[in-house]
Amino acid sequence: MKATRTLQIRFFALLREQAGCSDLSVTTEATTPAGLYRELMASHGLTMPPELLTYAVNETYVPGDTPLRDGDRLTFIPPVAGG
Amino acid sequence: MFRLIEEPIDAAALREAMRRPEAGALVVFEGWVRNHHGGRPVTRLEYEAFAEMAVREGEALVEAVERDFPGVAVTCVHRCGDLVPGEVAVWVGAASAHRDDAFRAGRLVIEEVKRRLPIWKKEHHPGEAPVWVNCSEENTPVRRAADYCERQASLPEVGAAGQARLAGANVLIVGLGGLGCPAALYLAGAGVGRLALLDGSRVEYSNLHRQVLFEAGDVGGEKAVRAALALRARNPHITVEPMAADLGPGNVRPLITGRSVVLDCTDNFATRLLLHDACSEAGVPLVQAAVHRWEGVLQVFQPGGGGCLYCTGLAGSPAELEGAGNCAGAPVFGPAVGVLGLLQASEAVKCILERPATERAAAATLLLDLLATSITRIARPRRSDCPYCAAPARPKTARETEPEATLWRSRQELAEAGAHRVLILATRAEREQFGWHRDGRDCFDPTEVGSIRRAVAASPLPVVLACPHGIRSAALARALRADGEPRVYALQGGLADGPLVSPVEP
Q: Residue A56 belongs to a domain with what CATH number?
C-alpha cells in the first residue's frame, strides 16, 4: 500500500465557489501540491488550468513540485488581483 | 507598516502619520475602485483575502523595501470586503529624504502587492454574473509564462523542451556591471528560471552609461538589489535572487554549486582566476568575458570543451595580471561591454540547451574589436603539458611556474632587451588613422592569424606583438606560446600608450 498523508486545504475566490467549501481535510497519496490539485480537479469540479495557479504550504509560497508532509496546510492560489 | 482592514481607509490620517522631520518627500499612491472595467460598468467589488498569509507577505514586503531603500519609511494599507466605486482599496505611502527613492519604493510596493498578496476581487456588473478578476480571459488577459517566451520557444533549436530546460536552469551572474547587466537582462528574457546575482558594490553615476539595468534614481543603491528589481519587472515568471556580497575564496564553492552555468562578468583578475579554478574543479560551465576600451574577449570553459585558462599560457599572480590589463576605472566603450555581455547570455543559453559544440564558442577564444568591427576566433585546445590541467588542485603552482609578467614587454624593457621584431596588429582604419603603416613597419590585420603565425615562426629575433590597447596582442601571444612559440611577447599598454621608441624597431 502506498503511503498517504492528511492535509488541511483552504480554498479561496473562484476555487472556493467551485469546491463549495472553504476548508477541506483530505487524505491522499499525492506527494506534491500540483499532483493533489490534479486529483481535486476531477473530484471537486475545479476548472482553473493548473498553469495559472501558485501554491502555498503553511502560508508560504512554494513551487508546485514541493514534497508534501503529513499535516501540511495547503492553499491553491488563483491569479491574485489586489490593489 | 502593513495593515489589512475591513473598515474604510482614512487617507488623511495615514498621510499625517507619515510625517517625520528627516523626510523631504512623500509619495502617496491610492488605488480607487472605478465604475467600469473592460468597457462594462462596474457596480461594486468584493475583495477576498487569505488574511494570515496576506498580512505575512505584506509585512515581509514592506520590510524588504525599507531594507533595499535605506532611509525610506513605507506604509501600506489594503481593504477587504465589499467596496463601491470611489472608495480607496489600497493606500501606499513612501517617505524619504529625496524624491527619487520615495517614488521608486512606492512604485515597487504597489507592484509587489498586486503581484504576490493573496487577495482576490470579484467584479459585479449590472444584469450579468459577477466575475473573478484575472481568473478568466473574459475580463483580463491571463499572462502565462508560455506566452512570454513564445517567440523564442518557436525556434526549432529551442522548442517546448528547450524552453522547459531554460525554466529549470539556475544561473549565477558574478558582477552586475557593464557585462552583467545586459547578460542578466537577456537571460531573464530567455526565461532562465532562477537567476542569482552577486555583486557587493553600489551603483555610481559613472556606471549608468553602460550598466543598462540602472537609472539615475538607483545611484547609491546596491547593484544586486536594484538589478533584481529591474529583472523581476522584465520577466515576472522567473525567480531572481540578489546577493549583495563579493566573491572570495571563502564563499566561491557554495555559490557555484548546483548552477547550470556561471557567468564571470567581473573586472579583476583575482575574481576571474578564483571563479575559473572553482568552476573547473566543480565541473560547472563558465562563460567569461573581459573588456578593455573598445575590445573584448569571450571564453567558455566547460568539461570536455577545450583548454582551460592556463592552457592559453596565462600565468602569474592576480596582482601581476592586474597591472597588465585591469578594467576597473579604465575608459570603456559602452557598446563593447553590451555586445560582450549579450554574447555571454547567448553562450549561456546554448550551454543550457546543450547545443552541439559546433554551434558554440566552446574550445575557442573570441576577440572582438568594436572600433575595427572585427571578430577573431582563436582555437583553444587542451594542452597536454598544461600544469593546471595536470594538477587542478594546485592552481597557484601553475601560475607561479611561468609568470604572466614574462608575456608582456614594456617600452623600457624593449629598449633594454636588445633586438626584437615588432609586428603591429591593426586594422586598415587604425593604420591610416595613426600612421602605423608608414616607415615600412610590419602591419597585419588582427584577423590574419595564419600570416602572423608564419611571420613569428620565420623570425630569427624574438617577436613583440603590438596592438592599440594590448588586448589582441596578448591573446594572440598566449595562443602562439601555447602552440610552442616561447619567444613571442605583447607590448604592454599597447600602441595607444605612447610612441614606439626607435631603437626597438627593426
A: 3.10.20.30
